[in-house]
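Appendix B, record 7
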Amino acid sequence: MGGLHAPLLICVGIACIFVDGENLRHSLVDLFAQEFNKTDYLPRNADWAGLFDALTAQARATARLRTYWYVVEHIDFIPWGLHKLLTEPEKLERVVSRDESIATELGRIAEPRERLVRVRQIAEELIAQERRMKSRFDGWGAFQDGIMRRFDAIEFRRAGSIQYNLFDQTLGKEKAVDVKLATDLLELRGIYDIGVIVSGDQDYVPAVQAAKDSGKQIVNVSFLKRDGMVLPGGARRLNQATDRTVEMSYAELKAFLHFPPGAEASTG
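Structure tokens (predicted):
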């Protein structure tokens, strides 16, 4: 009588990898808080091709055709167009007073000319912050271009926008990037057999189901923390919708990122 045998995992088909860029970046920051210099946008010396090829193998595909990496195309500032209002002091004061702390400060200035000087000073500070953030955003694009030059079969696809609040210097939620990824997952069905999604966004569930209905295998990627637990943020519904989920260990992922020697390990 024959014994029980573990199922044979057969690699078959060509894979395309679809990366939710902001989701991946947040995962790296959460996993490697000490090693990862967030001002660098992404780890500078990472072996991205090696990482995506490893994910391809885990997804049981024979080869990776291409990685599509989705990022924002534009940055929109709030408030918008301050530099155009420098010659219109009344409008300028109304705009900067949308911030409660600024409105409170200006309300304490009784002398009109003094208040006008302060309004212009605040506006110029916000405009300077806008220039700094725009330069930083442009640097992200240059970093992405550098990755495409260094590694074959990796393409950044830019779409949509993200808002940046000049008052509190915070980034908002991306708009339309996830729509572009979901659209490509369907429109590119003719070139791949296995679609690998690097994201935890359950908004992709309808596109995943449509791709599966056309005969494609769809795999989602989860990253594990040092303790072996899944990094929080992965969408349970997305994992349920895909054919399967592959998990990459903390140590394996870190090996591809090539952090500088001596970087202190994260405790996360």
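Remarks on this record: The chain is about 40% helix and 20% strand. Residues 112-150 form the longest helix (39 residues).
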